[in-house]
Amino acid sequence: ISAEADKVVQDQVKAIREETENRMEALQSKTKELLAESASAEEDNGSFSNVISAKVEETGKLEALVSSLTTDVEKSSAKIQELETARDALDKDLKENMQSLSVKANELSEMQSQFNTEKKRLEDELCAFRKKNEMPNEKLPKEEEEKVRSSVQPRSNTPGGVASSAVFTPITCTESICKYAV
Question: Is the model's pTM score more than 0.70?
Answer without folding.
Answer: no
